[in-house]
Amino acid sequence: MNGRARRGSAESRHLLSDFLRHELGLTGTHVGCEHGVCGACTVLINGEAVRSCLVFAVQCEGAEVTTVEGLAAEDGELHPLQEAFQAAHALQCGFCTPGFLMSLLPFLEERRDSGALTDDEIRDALGGNLCRCTGYQNIVEAVRLAHTKMSGGAGNSAGNSVGTSTGNSAGTCAAEGA
């Protein structure tokens, strides 16, 4: 869990989103629709963005799970994606923000060396997350800024790389011991 071994007990019907929030106290994972549609509960499981409201906690035994709490460095320095959201004013109420961050991280990691991103590519990556406040344009700008930072542009923060695959998927966890 966020780079540290964690143990917990969960009933077989206990959702990962509930386990994270209620058993481990990781309340950055938000629960919106509980149907995998809104994206607010997105976490990384073995580097893949998945909806934690669609995954049973027991399916993740032995898996590397990363929540929004795991993005910042140990010293509190924000991940470049978090910095970009702050700089571009890409949030208002903040409820959807953790899901956006966790969905976008694999997208940006995969495209680290791909050159400039188009608006269509960015908007496609945003497609699995809903926001009722921002109108998305500042989020698009934040993604562009984060891509620049993560690709070695001005203000790059090294050492906060997480995830390797794209996805706004609602997939399940293929973990060891599942």
Structural description of this entry:
The chain has 178 residues and is mainly alpha-helical. It has a domain at 80-150: Orthogonal Bundle (DNA polymerase, domain 1), CATH 1.10.150.120. Helices cover 29% and strands 6% of the residues. The protein contains 5 helices and 3 strands, in the order H-E-E-E-H-H-H-H. The protein has helices at 16-23, 80-87, 97-110, 119-126, 137-150, and strands at 42-45, 48-51, 65-66. Strands 2-1-3 form a 3-stranded antiparallel sheet, with helices on one face. The longest helix is centred in the middle third of the chain and has 14 residues, at 97-110. It is globular and about 45 Å long. 40% of the residues are buried.
Name a few traits of the molecule.
29% helix, globular, mainly alpha, 5 helices, three-stranded antiparallel beta sheet, 178 residues, disordered C terminus, single chain, DNA polymerase, domain 1
Question: How would you sum up this structure in a few lines?
Answer:
With 178 residues, this protein is mostly helical. It contains 5 helices and 3 strands; from the N terminus they run αβββαααα.
Strand order of the largest sheet: 2-1-3
Number of strands: 3
Q: What is the name of the CATH superfamily of the domain at 80-150?
A: [2Fe-2S]-binding domain
Under CATH at level 1, the class of the domain at 80-150 stands as Mainly Alpha
What overall form do the CA principal axes indicate? Answer: globular
Q: State the helix count.
A: 5
Mean pLDDT rating: 86
